[in-house]
Design goal:
By secondary structure, the protein is mainly α. The chain has a two-stranded parallel ribbon.
Length: 78
């Protein structure tokens, strides 16, 4: 499957086709809803899941930061 952009994810959420979202940030970073701050840790986590045999795994390109910039400016950037 591969990666997913914040725009694609927003559309899927809006259309009721939401995937399972796994947050792989550190505990002190939790303030929002496979994602991380900028998409690097979640890309690694997605790779591990794919190697374990999960086929429908996608990484959110740009992470929650891109979500804040392109989809919901109400989500604080850090």
């Amino acid at each position: 499957m591969g990666d997913i952009t914040v725009i694609e994810l927003a559309e899927r959420l809006k259309n009721g086709d939401a995937p399972v979202i796994i947050d792989v940030r550190e505990p002190e970073e939790y303030a929002y809803v496979m994602q991380c701050h900028v998409g690097e840790r979640s890309a690694f986590a997605a790779l591990i899941l794919r190697r374990m045999g999960f086929e429908r795994v996608r990484n959110l390109i740009g992470g929650i930061d891109a979500w804040s910039v392109h989809v919901d400016p109400g989500v604080p950037r850090y």
